[in-house]
Each structure stands twice: as C-alpha cells, then as structure tokens.
C-alpha cells in the first residue's frame, strides 16, 4: 500500500469513527464517496475539518442543509461540500 492509499484509509476511518453516530453517518459516506477524487490540498482541508469537535461540526453542516451558513470561514468550502453530499444522500433516502 502506498502513502496516498494509507492516507485515504486513515481519513476514512477517522470519518466513520467520530464519537457521535450523527457525524459518523454524515462524514463516513462522504469520505467513501469523495476522498478518492480529492487532491492533496483538498485532503489537507478535509483533515483540518476532522480536527473540529462533532458538537461544532454537526450544527455547521445541518445549518447548510436548511440554507444557512455557520462555522469558521476557513472551513466554508469543505462544509459546503460535505453538506451538499449529505443533502444528496437525504434525497436518495427519501426517494425524491
């Protein structure tokens, strides 16, 4: 396994094992669907996002699901990307 593959596996595991089930269910599927398409800089940004507490991340992401914006400006692009993925999954689940 090369360094990039190992990094993706490590980040995926961090995404699935957050500490709260809600964030596991948001970040785990996001990581599985999106990490392989990210360049090194985007992966760095996602890893910085993973350093935040679930108690902060959850309201920042769910605010975006209802059209709001919350969270630090440094994470805006990644929060938007995660929320867009979560929105798409909700549509799939609801059959819309």
Describe this entry's structure for a reader.
The protein is built from five helices and no strands. It has 96 residues and is mostly helical. It has one domain: Flavinator of succinate dehydrogenase (DNA polymerase, domain 1, Orthogonal Bundle). Helix 1 runs antiparallel to helix 2 and helix 4 packs across helix 5 (76-94). The radius of gyration is 13 Å and the shape is globular. It starts with a helix and ends with a helix.
Please name the defining characteristics of this protein.
73% helix, single chain, mainly alpha, 0% strand, DNA polymerase, domain 1, 96 residues
Question: Could you write a compact summary of the structure shown?
Answer:
It is built from five helices and no strands. It has helices at 3-16, 21-34, 40-50, 54-65, 76-94.
Map the helices and strands.
Layout: H1 3-16, H2 21-34, H3 40-50, H4 54-65, H5 76-94
Mean pLDDT: 92
- Oligomeric composition of the shown chains: single chain
Number of domains: 1
Query: Structural class, from secondary structure content?
Result: mainly alpha
Low-confidence stretches: none
Order of helices and strands: HHHHH
Compute the gyration radius: what is it?
13 Å
CATH class: Mainly Alpha
Shape: globular
Please estimate the helix content. over 70%
Indicate the CATH topology. DNA polymerase, domain 1
CATH architecture: Orthogonal Bundle
Q: How is the biggest beta sheet arranged?
A: none
Specify the CATH homologous superfamily: Flavinator of succinate dehydrogenase
Provide the β-strand percentage band.
under 5%
